[in-house]
Write a structure and sequence with these properties.
By secondary structure, the protein is an all-alpha fold. The chain is built from 15 helices and no strands. The protein has a single domain, classed as Cytochrome c oxidase-like, subunit I domain (Cytochrome C Oxidase, Chain A). The longest helix is centred in the last third of the chain and has 38 residues. The chain starts with 13 loop residues before the first helix and ends in a 12-residue tail after the last helix. The structure holds heme-as. The site of heme-as has 32 residues, from helix 7, helix 9, helix 10 and helix 12.
Length: about 575
Amino acid sequence: MKKQKQKPTESFSAKTAGVLKVDNKDAHLVLAHMYVAFIALLLGATAGLLQVLVRSGYFELPAPLGYYQILTIHGVLLALVFTTFFILGFQTAAVSRTSGALSDTQRILGWIGFWLMTLGTIMATIMILLNEASVLYTFYAPLKAHWIFYLGLALLIIGSWVDLMGHCLRWEQWRKENPRKTTPLISFMAVCNSLLWVVATLGVAIEVVFLLLPWSFGLVERVDVLLTRTLFWYFGHALVYFWLLPAYMVWYCVIPKIIGGKIFSDGLARLSFIMFILFSIPVGIHHQLTDPGIDSPSKYIQVVLTMMVVIPSMITAFSMFATFEMRGRELGATGLFGWLKKLPWGDARFLAPFVGMVAFVPGGAGGIINASFQMNQVVHNTIWVTGHFHLTLATTAVLTFFGASYWLIPHLTGRIFTPSLNRLGIIQTICWAVGMLFLAIGMHFEGLLGAPRRSAFSNYGGAEIAETWASYQIAQAIGGTFLFIGIIIFLYICVSLWWFTPKGEQEFPIAELAPQAEKTPPILENFKVWIVILAALILIAYTFPIYNIIENSPIGSKGFKLW
Ligand code: HAS
């Protein structure tokens, strides 16, 4: 049978949607998100610098600051606040750019969500600064925080739901206006990530609203620790893909344009996003492989599902290599890796995300080690895990966000990314890569030697061990210092792009589809089918463990009460 080919611009290009720019009013909304994100980045990074210095053993925190307090600031402001604001802002921009300006109602939803999230962030941050919520970003019970902290988190979550409704509705509107057409790729991806977020946050919302808040208010005396952990991780692992997918949006849709190439396959890109929706939620128990109270078969099922969620990343790696190679060959590259020489190494908009991709090779391999049941026993709760997520989150995702900011901020402010700022962007990326090399290698090796994570004590375990660990801790302090300098350079670039560089038109790059790409199967856009499969997978993965936890709960066994 003859295969149908898709016309290059048919599915997603700006031409189809008739849009080349983010609408002005939408740009204000996006920039508001970026303000909060970057303030959180600065505060969180400062806390990070203090941490590595404390762990090096050469620095003591000035009173009244405590180690867990700054660790909570670091985790909450970077992992929860910076990411959520940046991602929702980015998605709004991506949808406005490719599907068209948001309607007034859609934009108002965006603003309401934004203000709810900001209010929640302020409440939670104040409580941490007052040392009333030093419970780390995972807020595991029985660590207890002030109820204002939990309420702040609840507002952050609820606000995010309202916020994303704005741009998801815009995508739906595009679909209605363009029946039987494949929707713009990056808009579709934003909707996938939003769906993933909503389904995942249901777990943490139940945990916060029904378990932690009443306990913190003093309405109930005790809380089921295992149940709170399980609800948290139901959310927690999908959270990591909520961070990763916007980076993938940039890799799939923007990077090909920056290198002068085309998207390798629209269908494959959509398939990988659908697979993330299906497999990223029913895998949270791989964070609890050492938790007593969850039976081994349930853990085993989730380990298998975790291996499934590796596949869409493999698809992405394949697609990226294909894109690079196609472009390289166009420019005359020969041999297996000849394309490497043809990439635009002098463009910070490319270099930063590319370093993020490279970091994901060891970062992803580390993830597979973490997920491998028995090997997890070696690394769990050691600082190896911290090394893993500094490669995946703090490099793969965050460095891609930095690279995207170099064109997104000037696009929104009507300024240009000048050659001198581009040079600074290259220095920033190198600084980040060097810093992360020291930090992540130090963390992985120290972790293999058994050093615990989340511990201020550099000599934990006795003098002999402390000596072995010391060099790795110093490496981390050096790395952390480079990273802090990297953040300052990044923020300097953003401030310049916001207010100081010359006025002009900076492109929001969106690539076209390669002419030889296959037609995208319409089933990939049929969310009804995927939601049903997702619900089935969640039931398979979670019914038995949750039932067991409730059945054997020391608090409400037999005739269960939530608290
Ligand atoms: Fe993870 C713990 C398993 C991916 C983040 N992870 C964490 C924690 C965080 C985190 C924050 O199973 C700690 C939570 C806490 O505080 O306790 N993780 C995985 C697996 C993957 C994975 C299997 N993690 C991520 C991503 C994250 C992230 C992504 C953030 C963005 N992780 C775990 C497990 C734990 C865990 C256990 C619990 C450990 C414990 O015991 O506590 C997979 O998704 C990884 C698949 C990735 C790949 C790589 C594909 C490579 C690509 C790059 C292509 C490169 C190109 C260019 C094209 C298979 C796509 C290269 C060019 C060259 C020239 C080389």
